[in-house]
């Protein structure tokens, strides 16, 4: 199967994408022959490409490539256009069919306006490219199907209705021979035996055109203007007349693909319950970083939901089809943690499996590994983890061979790693490697809106689990839980609601009914019922982190600019936030 087999369809898709995004499009096969192109690239279609190192990388790795500074990035160094590239930006993605990479689809910018369009929503563009690559792959499948369908009209009628584009067969007089359901919908046809005049005129015009047609037309369908991409190919002659295959595609459906895909990718974060501005900001930030492969360090108190965020990041990423492996560094004995993480060879130690055992990093290959309680990792393993992050390879306990691993590392801690670094309890170089993308989850007491939202969610959950009919919390109970500090955060709140369900299974949970239960569980006295909880906003937490970073660089005789590396933000962003929070430097 080859992209050149469907070159007209590939060119049509390239033209459609360029028309929708207003960015130049280039599609090449795995031999780096330009199969389709728009703008200046259209002139060299069917020719061998030059300077194709970016596409080589996409085909070799099977991953998208983003080039923000063409001609000056590392991947461009061996290209003959290095330092003199006409492009202003490029994003490309591989085209796969089954397990085989058949080519690359690339979006190219050649001026400032195209560059702005290309990079203003990189995540959306990557999703769109992935869908377009899938569409090209499906075109190959359709091509194979159509070759078989021309030999058997009965099969053609059945299968055409499975294709997600309009398919029509007309003869050389413009008479309709076959039409699938999608074409009927696109053209607003209710009765194929009595076609509207403008549809018959369209068929006649298509017959009179050259043998192959590739164009966009605008039709009035049910009093609405609809833009369609139409192609025509000649089929083998049937009897005394030739037949033509017409395909139709709604331009709006191409645009909707990207929107739908983006909505689907946000679902893992939608499952994290929370309505407060603080948690919504963290969810939006985490969704954005889920698209990269950079290491993430999630910080927050115990019970704030660090693992839930790690899972959401994985399930929203391009690694979601591969494993998500969790390791609790504080729950595994120190003498076993090394073999759990990196695996071991047979006979590596007494009691070892005689066949050896793969480690968690191997099991997470091409997926993500979640290292919870990373602050509990012993110093000798911190060194080994640093090597994995630097070299992307592991070595079995008792082994001598290096094993490459493709794993995204997401670490989490409820400890202050910066303070541990200052105290010599955690390696500074490992901290920097882990803290590429910092995520701070605020405690439950600082986002009171979420206390009620989570309570309602847990009540619904336990109603199903206990087969109960609890209607909710009374106003007096709500007031109490809003003022309670929840040192165990979401985990403590969930346990509290579950505790109440063991005694109350219907109606409203009020202080009149549950006062003694609540006081006992929360270990509070009646006279202290109105507890004033401290309030910590996300902005306050951010200010505190910046002050800590500035104190650290002062203590180590570093420059203020070095604090931006500690915080994982840009230099300009650091100084803007210093001014915003009026921090003394």
Biggest sheet: strand arrangement: 2-1-5-4-3
The average pLDDT score comes to 85
What is the CA-based Rg, rounded?
Answer: 30 Å
Could you tell me how far the N terminus lies from the C terminus, measured between alpha carbons in angstroms? 63 Å
Structural class: alpha/beta
Strand residue content: 15-25%
Poorly predicted segments:
527-535
Tertiary shape: globular
Number of strands: 19
**Main sheet?**
5 strands, antiparallel
Helix content: 40-55%
Total helical elements: 22
Q: Can you give a write-up of this model?
A:
By secondary structure, the protein is α/β, with parallel strands linked by helices. It contains 22 helices and 19 strands. It has a 5-stranded antiparallel β-sheet with strand order 2-1-5-4-3, sandwiched between helices. The protein has a 5-stranded antiparallel β-sheet with strand order 7-6-10-9-8, sandwiched between helices. A hairpin with a 2-residue loop joins β8 (213-221) and β9 (224-234). α8 (251-270) packs antiparallel against α10 and α16 packs parallel to α18 (489-501). The chain is globular and about 95 Å long.
Quick structural overview:
Helix content is 44%, strand content 19%. With 585 residues, it is an alpha/beta fold.
What topology emerges from the helices and strands here?
Layout: H1 7-21, E1 24-29, E2 34-37, H2 53-61, E3 65-67, E4 89-97, E5 100-109, H3 112-119, H4 122-149, H5 153-160, E6 166-171, E7 176-179, H6 181-187, H7 197-208, E8 213-221, E9 224-234, E10 243-250, H8 251-270, H9 277-289, E11 296-299, H10 306-315, E12 324-328, H11 334-342, H12 360-363, E13 368-372, H13 379-391, E14 393-395, E15 402-404, E16 408-413, H14 417-422, H15 428-434, E17 437-440, H16 448-466, E18 469-473, H17 475-483, H18 489-501, E19 506-509, H19 511-522, H20 538-555, H21 562-567, H22 571-580
Parallel strand pairs: 11-16, 11-17, 12-13, 13-16, 18-19
Antiparallel strand pairs: 1-2, 1-5, 3-4, 4-5, 6-7, 6-10, 8-9, 9-10, 14-15
Helix pairs in contact: 4-5, 4-8, 8-10, 13-15, 16-18
